[in-house]
Amino acid sequence: MPLPSFAQAWLQARESADAGLCLLTVYHPMMETYRFVRNTANVTSRGDVYTACPFDLDILNDNDQPPRATLTFPNVDRAIGIQLAQLVGPPQVTIEVISSAHLDEPITRAARLKLKNVSVDPLVLSGELTRVDDSSETCGTKRVTPSMCPALFRAR
Description:
This protein is 10% helix and 37% strand. The protein has helices at residues 7-12, 78-86, and strands spanning 20-27, 34-37, 43-45, 48-52, 56-58, 68-74, 92-99, 108-120, 124-130. A 9-stranded mixed beta sheet has the order 3-4-2-1-7-8-9-6-5, with helices on one face. The model has no long low-confidence stretch (mean pLDDT 83).
């Protein structure tokens, strides 16, 4: 994803009046979509309202394991915890960083993360963000034969 035109100068500036905001979207077909912003006030970006929430996001690890992060946010609305506990399959999470001066232009984006191992207690919701590990996918399980894939074979 290329940087927007304003982003390079903004990121390299020694100081700026514009804050960097982290947007978090939690989606699953069996529940409503939740949108949070790490800020003290709600933010509207691209027509969606992001609710102010002091969530914590530990950055993805950098070791030999697949990328992982830990997401923690306060359990202020018990309905969220109840819905997450009842879901079949993990919800998808999207993380975006925007500038407070350019709310509709994300600087960076991490999409299609899975929220797994969700733990719910009266004060905090926490879970592990993972990405699909392509290295664990099996390779070559389908045999390519003329009857199964006729377009790959020329008639002689």
